[in-house]
Amino acid sequence: MKKFSILVAIMFFAGIGFCEIDPKLYEKMSDEYCIADVENCLIWGLKDQAAEILEIVAKRGNPDAIRLLETYYADYRMDFQDEIITDKHSIDDAVNCFIWGLNDKAAEILELLAKRENVHAMRLLGIYYIEYISDSKTEQDLKQKEGFHWLSKAAEKGDPVAMSQLGYCYLFGLQTDIDTKKGFELYKKAANLGYNSAEEYLLLNYMNIVNDGTEEITNDIFQLIQKKADEGNLKALTTLGYMYYLGRGVQEDKKKAVNIYKKLVEQKYSFGYTNLAVCYIKGDGVEKNYKKAESLLKQVTEGKISDPPYYMSNDIGHAFYLLQLLYSDNQYGMLDSEQARYCSEMAKRHGWY
């Protein structure tokens, strides 16, 4: 029995933040790359997210998006011909197969086209195979190696979507040794070619780098983060806040971090609520104010900032965890053992231990 992991989808799609799409990203992205992300979502089984992106692009009058939406909502399945007539129609057929869950048939079509040096097919086949999972370890390893091979070929031919996926392989050691430098270079190249999702993923990884402190924050990394933060990018603002809060890549300045977190709160971004609450609890860059911290955290846990895509289960868990601390320690002046137990349980349910 063959299965497919959606780990790549969750990690790669910084633009859809834990599988919720960011409309602003796709409103700015070219139709071509929006459709590419739709195809990726379909391969990973994220059909609802694919439909959301298609709705955005279809409103712009894009015929491919309109056709795919019609196929998505149709209740029929097409008959396939053994003979493939043109590459374009065959790519369409393969994408339709992914919509309908006929993944083996899609791979069969893509393999024929990839062998004809069709770059689009190489990329889709590579994305499909790179995280292929099977009960047979031998089959799984073989397919994943094929995935790396086809992504490499498509990237060599200048496909930015393949470059970004190949960058993922190098960052996480999928069918290759981990090479962080090469991974980031591939993402940068893809972003420079106009593939906005690659830039979003770079920002997400830079956020992780700032948090764990395992990599140097170089000037070019800081410049990209600052540039995107100035443009109002919420991931970049979050990362910049972390940098000033932790003193990584910049001089530590917790007041600046607080001001950034307040901007995130204005945008209803849950990271801003939890991080600003921590500052109020600790007195970092602002006077201690446990009531303000509690109010911010309750807005997260009570769903008052649930405007997608800036709402993540992890932040809900973090908020419950922080509330549990406030209610379980008398130093905060709001001791409540029943609420503390409830918040502790809810934090665990949302994956915060």
Task: Give a written overview of the molecule.
The protein is mainly α and 353 residues long. It is built from 19 helices and two strands. A two-stranded antiparallel sheet has the order 1-2.
Key words describing this protein structure:
353 residues, mainly alpha, 2 strands, disordered N terminus
Could you give a short description of this structure?
The chain has 353 residues and is mainly α.
Any chance you could write out the topology, listing elements then pairs?
Blueprint lengths: L1 E3 L2 H6 L10 H6 L2 H13 L3 H12 L4 H11 L13 H14 L2 H12 L4 H12 L1 E3 L2 H20 L3 H13 L7 H13 L3 H17 L6 H12 L3 H13 L7 H13 L3 H13 L7 H12 L11 H16 L8 H13 L4
Q: How much strand?
A: under 5%
- Number of beta strands: 2
- Given as residue ranges, the uncertain stretches (5+ residues, pLDDT < 50) are 1-19, 76-85, 307-311
Instruction: State the secondary-structure class.
Output: mainly alpha
Oligomer: single chain
Helix content: 55-70%
The largest β sheet comes out as: 2 strands, antiparallel
C-alpha-based Rg, rounded? 22 Å
Distance between the termini: 34 Å
Order of helices and strands: EHHHHHHHHEHHHHHHHHHHH
Mean pLDDT over the residues:
85
Form type? elongated
Number of helices: 19
Strand order in the sheet with the most strands? 1-2
